[in-house]
Fold each of these.
Amino acid sequence: MKSYHFRILKSKIISVFLTLFAILSTVPFLLVLYFIIKNGISVINWEFLTSLPKPVGEPGGGILNAIVGTTILIIIALILAVPFGIFTGVFLAEKGDSKIAFLSRLVVEILQGVPSIVVGIIVYLWIVKPMGHFSALSGGVALGIMMLPVVIKSTEEILKLIPREIKEASLALGVPYYKTILKVVIPAGFSGILTGILAGTARIAGETAPLLFTAFGNPFLNFNILKPISAMPLLIFNYAVSPYEEWWAKAWGASCILVVFVLTLNIITRLISKR
Amino acid sequence: MASRFTRKLALNKDKIFNLVLSFFAVLLIFLGVGFFLSLFNASYLAFKKFGIGFFAGKNWDPVQEEFGALPFIYGTILTSFIALGISFPFSIAISIVLGEYFQKGFFAEILRYLTELIAGVPSVVLGFWGLFFLVPLVREIEIALNVPPYGVGILTASIILAFMILPYSASIGKDAMRLVPNELKEAAYALGATRWEVIKKVMIPYARSGIIAGIILSLGRALGETMAVTMVIGNYHGIPESIFSPGNTIASVIANEFTEATGEVYLSSLMYLGLALFIITTVVNLIGRFILKKLQH
Amino acid sequence: MTDIVLRTENLTASYDEHIVVKNVNLSIPRNSITAIMGPSGCGKTTLIRCFNRMHELSPKAKVEGKVILIEKNHQIEEIDVYSIDPMLVRRKIGMVFQKPNPFPTMSIYENVIAGYILNGIKLKKSEADEIVEETLKKVSLWDEVKDRLHKKGTFLSGGQQQRLCIARALAMKPDIILLDEPTSALDPVATLKIEELLEQLKDTVTIVIVTHNVGQAGRISDYVAFMYLGELIEYGPTDVVFTRPRHEKTEEFLSGKIG
Amino acid sequence: MLAEKLNKLKEKIVEQGNLVESMIEKSIRGLLTRDKALLIDVLQVDEPRANEMEIEIDEMCVNLIARFHPEAKDLRTIIMILKMNNDLERIGDMAVNISESALFLIERPQVKPLIDLPKMAEETIQMLKDSIDSFIKGDSNLAKNVCERDDIVDAYRDQILRELITYMISDPTTIERAIHIERISRNLERIADLATNIGEDVVYIVEGKVIKHGRYKETEQGGV
């Protein structure tokens, strides 16, 4: 048997080693953040945020089309996923042991793991192909589907945490079931549901793959949801793989805005759910 | 006392409400089934033409309308498993550090945020960064090793994937480590074990299935990840000869070629790829979640 | 026992084929405190949950027999509880639960009039103020909370929360309130306060309380029912049941041999 | 709650005390004023009421113990009330004895002028009054005082007996009447004894000390 001192020393060395390894794994994130801010911050100015792209060669121009596009896509996704997600979440929390619930949960788990590109294909088949052209609507639907499992899961989890007594107290006051759910149970779980919605928004705001065959992109400002629309991640992708240095700069600027937006949502979600 | 009318009305509203709830749940099930059926339907043409042999075909030639998925399957599996290999030691280290050494406190919070937040960075941004930081770096290495200096390729894609999946396996691993009962650890300490011995002989064996679930779930992520991979893998349709050579994954082929696909067979073949990806990731995910669920009970 | 407010006729209740209340016939006198006692799992909670139709909310729950509520306004009216909308029943028969459960999103003020708010019954500000003050005074909570009516009810102590929940039930002006082991989550001092409160309240409302605590049943009730394995074994004035129980099982329960 | 119910019980026992007190007083007054109606009233109205009340108080005590599980002073109070109830009922019986003898006596000529007997009765009634008073007020000093006055009543009884013996020896026809007078004085003496009992019970309720059977001295020093 090795001496006790040796074993203690070994244990200590390993702990230092592991801690260093863990710290090392934060390096990529910090590098990405550093790179994006370094390259992006100088690009961002008022014009960048409020004007449309200009052809290569012309100075100036911005990414307004993408900002508006992402906003519209997120709104469409929210409109679809929030009610759908909350109602399904309520169903799972309330009638959790039915057969329908079992199957729904299975679908939620499948949706949670489905690659975003597959969602893109599906929405292409369901909406783009029948319509004959790309559209903001199809992009919003794709993002909505991506968001759905997050909203459902967080709603279900938070509602399960709400004591049964709260619900019964309301029913015992002669309040109908639907009002009990809408006015007592859902408000009691409001912060949790909100967290889920924010987390879902964070998940979809940077999604690109499902937009490739749905929203497609659009160099002009568009408010018509039946027409193709641009989005921040689409713009970053298109500019990043282009051969023009000035487009790369614009992509850095857009990346910077998108990353700050998504990370802020992420941090807010974590802070809310910690309380 | 309310009139008979309002008595009935309230009851009806409850029924309607329950119907609405069930409607959404059933709609969700239809959504899931619809996913599968639509993909299956769209890929039927390619399936009829190439059958299961599709996945063994080495050539992907849109001009000749000859489609074989083997290079992409190979690329997908290669990148995913290399990524798992790269991230594994880090993920274990984070699991142990956050699951045992630093469970609370400022350092633990910061470390947790910094390791988990990379999952929040949009994959297109990571790909962009990879293109301008990682690709030149890998190119230097390739020059030093005297292999063709593409920069882009399997290795670059794997490194990016490793960054992306690390938070998943690390956070599930950490949770699994924290689930180890204190009595068990104390019993081992009481026998004179050192901290490392407790971790190695008690905690890791106890948390093993959780760690494995984390790895499986992150594999599911890696298999389906699209944008970052598409941007740095090099889009080569052949079977990659080494980890330095460019390649393609199922997801990256679809992303690259879908909007340009002309011809029904071409499109259907891409759908067929999508169906395969869907089934593989779903199976991998469900296995991972099944293990996790068993762990929680 | 002439002035009856609630009567059950061959009441039988079950969960998933498992009968928990067997053929109970019970008449509850108006403006009194009736305690239902018995060892845990004897069906006492289920019994009172049948009174205001809460039992049927549980999955696979079934109720047979009748529960008759006797209202005395201008004339005497017998209402079969299972023939009208359960929402109406629950407004006439209030309920207070084991764990204090004020609505977490509502203030103390809103909690008192929660029944009105949630049912969509509009109250004038002055009306609402009056109900809140009057009800909180009834449960002797007014002096303790009058300066923080608009704070959340969940900040109160356990005993105060439970009194708030009693106020919430009372504000609907029910004929009966059912209390399901209302003090089991409270400390002895808070328990005593609730018991004193119930004693005061029986002038305005009929009280039915489920308790596993023999002492509590003895201290506060006018009538006591003893249940065992789902059956109503003995029922009568507390003085009589506590000193000269007719049934051997009651004797054993009272002397702590079962339960 | 318990305190309230205990008060009701106390009121009841005081009422019973007052009733039996009035029974003694009425029977003696009936004897002295030769008022037959008063004596019959004691026998036919008061006695049944006292009996009824005794049962009622017994039940109240048992109920309180069964339902409230009283402790310490509350428990002592209830147990003592239970005993007082017994004592008072017996005092009632003795008042009945007195009334019966009085009924016999008032139909016949006087043996002798009744001088000591009224005084004795007065003292006895006062003792009973004081013992009940001490109970109401929780006054252990008054209660102890009652216990000490027992000797006075005993002395009256001896005195009366001696006198009656003289009369009986000198005129045997008075024997029957004399025995009835003696019976009255003996009953008064026993009433005084029971009043003493009550006094002792009050000391026990108030102070938790037993002063019966010569323990008075010991407990003064702190031991029981």
Note: Chains D and A do not touch (no CB pair under 8 Å).
Amino acid sequence: MSGSTIIFYLLAALTLVSAVLAVTTRMIFRAAIYLLFSLIGIAGIYFWLQYEFIAAVQIVVYVGGIVVLIIFSIFLTQQAGDELPKQKMGRQLFSALAAFCGLALVLLQIAQHAFVETGGEVVAPTVANIGNQMLGVNDGGYALPFEVVSILLLAALVGCIVIALKSKPEQT
Amino acid sequence: MFIVKYIKDVFSGIKSLLVGMRRTGYYFTHHKEIITEQYPDNRDTLVMADRFKGEVVLLHDENNEHACTGCTACELACPNATIKIVTKFDITPEGKKKKALDKFVYHLELCTMCNLCIIACPTDAIKMAQTFEHSVYDRAELTKILNKPDSKIREGVE
Amino acid sequence: MWSLTNISTGIHDWLIQTFNPTWALIIEMVIAGIAVIGLFAVLGLVLVLMERRVAAWMQIRLGPNRVGPFGLLQSAADTVKLLVKEGMTPDGADKFLFNLAPFIAMMVAMLLMVPIAFAKDFQLWDLNIGVLYVSAVSSIMVISILMAGWASNNKYSLMGAMRSGAQIVSYELSAGLSILTIVVLTGSLNINDIIIAQADGWWIFKGHIPVIISFVIFIIAVTAETNRAPFDLAEAESELTSGFHTEYSGMKFALFFLAEYINVFIVCAIGATLFLGGWMPFHIGNWESFNHVMDYIPSSIWFFGKTFFLIFVIMWFRWTFPRLRIDQLLNLEWRYLLPISMFNLLLATAIAILGWHF
Amino acid sequence: MFRETEIVKDVSSIPPFPQDAVQGGGGAGDLIINVGPQHPATHGVLHLVITLNGETIKKVEPHLGYIHRSIEKMCESLTYRQFIYVTSRMDYLSAHINNHACALCVEKGMQIEVPDRAQVIRVIMDELTRIASHELWWGAMAMDIGAFTPFFHAFREREKINEIMEETCGARLTMNYYVPGGLRADMHPDFQKKVKEFIVLFKRKIDEYDELVTGNIIFINRMKGVGMLSKEDAVSFGCSGPAARGSGVHCDIRKLYPYAVYDKVEFDEILETGCDSLARYMVRIREMKQSVRIIEQLIDHIPEGDFQAKTKAVLKLPKGEFYTRVETARGELGVYIVSEGATTPYRIKFRSPGFSNLSALDSMARGSKLGDLVAMMGTLDLVIPDIDR
């Protein structure tokens, strides 16, 4: 086993263990922190794959943005320090089923997809290339997914504002 | 105009900050302005004001004589019961009993240096000394007997 | 000419010859790790002493002058004191997170060291997205502050953490935008490319007004991101006693303290790299003889000189200005810095497209 | 005989304490934090219970008594010569002025004529104390809102005043220089020279204060519109001194009820109409300049003569009630003595400025941010021993 493989398994273990801890811990703040470690682990795998740009974006968006927002929303709700109650049996079963279905779907997709090695030249990840790919509208461009994702984020932003504004009239 | 005001705000704000930075920058480069006194090092050159109220002392002359008659005026004047005068009776050559000072007990730990005892003293026997390093390890050391052993009242002081 | 490059290549060659490649790599990693930790310790000592001296002189005081000659050993004595102090964990705190937070702060600071070019060809990892990496990893810093603030089970700490979270998340935007100005002008995220692009003059001189504006915005934004006065709301001692590290003591506090100074060093190093040319000596266009004279000064001295100048500026801010209020802090970002830096980015892009820069 | 119970004849006539103030807060999302008794911003052992909603203050409850030394009660067991020195420990930053108030009250009761020389020196000392007190306030307030450097710059000038005090009075903070009937000792031979030197230095340095703090955009934003205290509120809370003059209340005792030689010197009562923290700040800065003006008028015209009137060895105030007031650096200090003709007062009451000024804090702070509270407390210039006594 080479050093590179060892690093991969370490990263994978970090990601998986903290992901499992994130869903099993009863303390909501700790769950957020475990989620953070899981996301950092994924970023580490990107670094391992030498996808430095994706890794940095993973950290910026998920760690610097999403997790901080999650932590903020935990702070703003009152029971940040309390232990969450144990869930009902039905709920546990249902969520296990949902998780299993999701896993099955992903495995199915992987099994059906034929992985072919791309013999073509690897695009150098310079800023110009990244920009062209991301904003390109021709073949191989990612403009449409990029914009769709940003609309999703916009919707989430508007939702946040609506939720934050709702409590105002009650208090005053 | 909104834009003009906005730009003016930014520039006047930055200017006011730079004025403050110039002032601190001046002191950063002008070390002659430094006012720190390095206390234990400058002890030799330290000059205390001659009226500084450090502690009460009973003045003795070279013959080990003081001017305290034991009248307890200072004890009465003191607001904190800092001074306790213990008197005894001397036998004068004429064979008469005469009140005299036995012990001048001074509680430095109670003293607030208000100077009232000095004003009250009719014979100017006590005064304020300029010492100020009073810290000791045991509080009992602060209770002092001001008259020196075997000291006696100066001739002619009534 | 003496340079750090020769040393590093010398060690590398010797290791390759003596061991097999895997062992050589591992030994190099260990050496790099020790070097980073050593640099941390030295930087911590130097910066703390420097801060105290700068503060003292601005406040017409002498500053530390008792321990060692000119007080040079003062921060070493402080370190010993902090090491032997009891590191208390308050009752009712989330002990796991409470003890984890200072280490996260420290690890983030260590990770940030990776892409910084300390001298010519002297860098831990020549990342092709160096600048993006720094702004990405530095955003993890806020997590450690939030963690510390929450886990302390103290209301002051929690408020400090909330303040610092809001502050860092918003100021990252304008810091990022002002970095982008340089990225647009250079066309690369690689730190070495950015430095080499300044071989004929630093960006602050040849980039016209947009670069100067973005330099000012960068300095303001990173001062806020590192929680330094006048933006030290997270630890505002007159309001929140000590903010997020109220409950920390001993070495755990020292780690936060050290991480703060290392972060200051790193952001100043990035600022020096982007705007003042990093290790690049002072060059003017094509004055070959002048440039040649400048090259005689070792590149590491150029780098540290520029970085410490920026650190001094940030300390100068701290000992001159009063603290902002939390709503004014956010106003400054959203009403002034962000619009200005967005407009400025447009200007810089126009300059880059038209090729107006020197 | 005068008894306190006579003051409040009918308890039912007192309006009930506003319910809002009793309950206030406690709602969902409220955070109650204790600022103090040990806290960097309270400059002493003041305890504020603050109800917060996020960063916004809903209520401030001051809790007092942590350094209550029952000075009023202590004074009842001390003679009229002795009790004056205790009052230096109330508002220790304007010790001279406190002593002045007590000395005036005893002199009023005994009908002692204070010699002109003593009166002039007293006024000079009072104004020097006022400058020293405002200096310390300026540094401490700048430190409250986060600027450290002004504190040391302010102490540089304050040190000069302390040296003058040390030379003449023998102490730097609790001088005990005034006795009923005049001064304890004559001024030091160097006094006039030193004061003139100080004035020259101070006039140069006070402009630096404006550079460092007053003109600073961050400072102005922190102060402007913060801690609004309307003129009506200032009067109804009984505020006095710079805190009230910042709201445009005409309340300078030196002008309204001149004592010593204040009616013979020219100076302006500083009034600002901003009602906010910046106005209170400006009042103090301008007041320092007025104090310098007063000193300049007097320092070359100290009349010759005795520094102390001839008084009896034992002072006994005639039976009756006596009240005098002076303007300390913080506001109006009233001394009220009830005498039964003995050598000690039957009852003493001090009307201290800090206590009334603190009572306005709650109404000023509501709705503002936590950081503003510190600025407000800074501009109220609270000295906790003055509040607790």
Note: Residues 123-172 of chain A form one domain.
Amino acid sequence: MTALVRHPRFRRWGWIVIGALVLVSLGRATLETGPPRTTAEQVRVIGATLKCPTCRSQSVSGSDSAAAKAIRNEITQRVEAGESADEIRTAISATYDDVQLIPKASGFEGLVWIVPVFVLILGFAGVAAGVARWRRATTRHATEADRILVNKALDER
Amino acid sequence: MNAALGTAGVVLGFAASFLGVVTLAVGLRQKRPRLLETGWSYSLLALLGALIAVVAMQRALITRDFSMGFVHDNGSSRTPPLFNVATMWSALEGSILLWVLILTGYTVHVARKFRARLTDPLVGMALLVMLVVGAFFFLLILGPANPFTTVSVPPGFDGPGPNPLLQEHILMAIHPPMLYLGYVGFTVPFAFAIAALATGRLGEGWLVETRRATLTAWGFLTIGIILGAWWSYEVLGWGGYWGWDPVENASLLPWLTGTAYLHSVLVQERRGMLRVWNLSLLCATFSLTILGTFLTRSGVLESVHAFSDSDIGVWLLSFFAFTVAVTLGLIGWRGDQLRSPGQIDSPLSRESAFLVNNVLFAAFAFVVLLGTVFPLIAEAVNGRGVAVGPPYFNRMTVPIGIALLFMMAVAPVLPWRKASTELLSKRLFWPAGAAAITAVVTVALGARGLGTVATFALGAFAGAAALRQVVLATRRQGWRGFVGRANGGMIVHLGVVIIAVAIATNGHFLREIETSFEPGQTLTVGGHEITYLRTVVVEERNRTATKVSVQIDGDRIYEPALSRYDGFGSLIGTPSVKTGLREDVYVTVTRLPEGVDGPVVLRVIIQPMALWLWVGGGVMVLGTILAAWPGRRRVPTDPVSALISLDDPVPVPPLRGSE
Amino acid sequence: MSDLEDQRAFLLRSLEDLEREHDAGDIDEQDYGALKDDYTARAATVLRAIEQGAVRVAVPVRRRRSWVALGGVVLFALLAAVLVAQGSGRRDAGDTLTGGIRQSSTEKLNEAGRRGSEGDYAGGIALYDDVLVADPDNREALTYRGWYLFLSGKRAEGLTQLLEVATAQADYPDVHAFLAVVFDRNGLSAQALQELRLLDGLDAPAYIRDIVVPLRDRLEAAASSTTTVAVTGGG
Amino acid sequence: MSEVGAEPDRSDELPGPVQQGRPMVIVAVALAVVVALLIAVLATRSPSGERSRQSPLLGRPAPAIVGTTLAGDSFDLAEYRGRWVVVNFFATWCIPCVQEHPELAKFQARHAGTGDAALVSVLFDNTADEAQGFFTENGGDWPVVVDEAGAVGVDYGVARVPESFLVAPNGIVVQRLVGGVTAAEVDDLIAQYEGAPE
């Protein structure tokens, strides 16, 4: 058994099976949707994207304040009426100023999305450049004299 | 009397720190060892000052000395003894006092540890930096955050007590000290980093000497963050544990840069690279603790946890600017000496994996910092506020987290210098198999969503890789295989995997229902039987609590409540949680019954694996302890996959100093 | 420690580490040989340099900066970042990439109405002009433009415009409501009543009907008796 | 300082460190600039406590308020067209609301006779019972609309009581008043709008 496992060919096939299993599972997980959510769960998800107007930095889902409760009621009614999350968000932000917790994709607000991704990619490019720069182009070959010198130094340590 | 004693303590501490700074500076400049040796006495005096101040504060709190400003504002005769002690760090002034106590404690620890080498400029400079920080915080207490003011009180006066939210749970008594032990602990490696820059001794010596201090600080910060999340879960009744609140972000930022440092420091020790980067990370970590304190204490940002506002902001911001200016100046000045002798031998090696890991951690920290301060930037530019909330942080950090999980699986099995694909294929085979099986099983069990399933699979991958290392190490070394940085680190990885899986499970399988219960009615939610028994109004000393008795699974009675605190406005909900290995049943009251027999509206949240968040935190802390375990000095350069028996003579690398 | 000694220590330590890593099975025979050879040669160079009393070895500065590569990376990063932003950020109706709001006609109409109700008639008129450039027959823009002209003092101009709309698009209720008010202010009660009748024949929104309630009451009262009832307020 | 060039053919392969002197300074300066800007932004921010009086409702028709009052009558805001209406959101547990109460009573008394302006209170996170007790004790004979679910509050975007909205006779919301109001303040506002060119 161990011998079989250690065999390179077994391992090659094993890797192929692993790759296939992972791809199929991830694909299924991505394409299929999960079980339907209860109203309360949908309200929680939508409420998490709206700022509670009374509170400090809490979302509508995360607060027990009166305003948050009232907005949750409103969301519940709208969810039950079959409105989509976007419609509900738009409706709520029509009466409250600055309640959207998701920054906009465009304009100055869009920078909050753009800058980190830009920096991350530049960071990776920087590391790649650094690795390329740190690596020596050629490996050197030691002469016999080099070896003797270095071994002596090593022994002295 | 208490106020006078406290002020005396603070003055003593400030004087000791300030004089210590001057003496050490003169000693360093004129190379006078006699002066450098006084660092020990000054550190002790500073600690003594802080101790006196804290004792005075505690004494005032215990005796309810309302003539002292801090007790007048935050104390109350109704506060139970434990929370009375904790009242000290429930408000700004007292928490700065705690900060100073911990900081002077660390200073004395450093001075004691290096007492034989106090005349070494490196140690002298490090002590000087710590005393500078200490002097600043003592100054804060004397200036804008003075708890020792005196007020005249009418007879029979009783204070309001600490913020009610802080009195709800015992965790609030231990969470802040843990957090501060972590925050302040990073001052030690920071001081040595500055000392290394200032003295030009930029080798690897100082790294090794501060290794345990760094690990300790990191461990405490981890405990602090986990306890904070736990408190949030148990006390704030919204059913979550992490809300990307500015205060939470402020604690996460130094943790992220600190974690990046713990990894990249290995590259420097082992391969002699990344000197500037490591110094920068330490300086960033320290600066971020100051910036975080500013953000949460100055009131510029809205936060649930910011329980006090004051004009301390200018001071903290100035100190932050000073810190950054000094570090950047030093790095710019010493730039040419910071060249590292090391080089990368192959892109497929552990050092490159650590580079990628560091980019990811830095990006993570950047996202958190940007998201936290962006509302202020937008307001300054556009004149109009922008809310940046949890959806932003989740969308940006989850991919980074998943990438980190992947690196966590691959990096530990990668050897230094150069790896062959054959070696990787051999070592990663079983972990990858575990990942594939996990992916299949979780999808079969109903998990959906790329991020969720990827987290499960990569969690198994990283967990199996970490287990493999631990098993190999214990097979070779017996119980010693658990001890030491490499092996302890693997235990920490296991803890991280547990937390990652718990977060993914909790987010994906959480079930919530909000429904109305008649008295005596039983409803089944997610397989749990919930019976509403009765509602009782309890008049307590500082609040009117309406407690709803609920029986879960025929088990004991749980009592979620809605309370109206005196003078606190709106109703505050307190959840009640039935904790289980598989899942928690989390009950909060949404609407109280009208009259005695009316129906009550309850929110029931089934929280899968919530317990494992805290268990994972515990495992991380255990791993940190194992990594920092004092014992026979371990070589920092043990090979990766197979540890050499300690019975063999091990060549000790030529590092300056010893731990 | 000088630069060279630093390097000597590092290279010798690396050689020792390499041995142990090789013993532990971390490194292939082939890689081991190549790396050991390389480290040895480099260490020897440094050792010789130290013997000769040098302080540092000359390091060539490689400046093969490729601006093209840098530009490419920056462009790619920018593109990816914008795509991520588009995918993750919130997009409101009418947002442009730069955040300037490319208002649809409807939004402009709403905005103009808001301006007008705040007393900024000139602003409202300008917005209606914008709408009319794209849609010259927009009855809402034409009507409210006329109304705002009237309100801002250009009475004749406003009246002309309202009359034009009332002729061209007689089934638009709003215009009749405004005409009724305009006629009334000019003392033409009969024509005002006439407009109100026309309005009654149309399916007017509540908002419009409410506007003319006080006017109608007064006019009808005046028509039925000679007494005038004063009505306070007004829209 | 002598430099080794004994083996020039090999010199570019020496274990030399990467030259980093100048780039380091550039990076340090760039970082310093960024941090300085950040500090400037942070230093100039006022505390977050100041709340805006902006509301997306301004200039729009007032959302409908249809409901039952404490007295048990039905209430419909639409019936108040042609009059100025102060829509006041209120809770008995809120201290500023209680402090505001006499001013509201004064405003009501001033306009009850002329009928040119009306006042309506809407309960916010308050039950009818709690409010009934308060109004019995402190007086107040204007309609108080019960809004248990908080739907009206959401329609008006009420964040923190007390909050009032001034609705013009044409049914358009013209002002959002955050915090307690005084009778004089509201009258001034009305006079201001009345004086504006129609």
Note: Chain B touches chain D through 37 residues (CB under 8 Å).
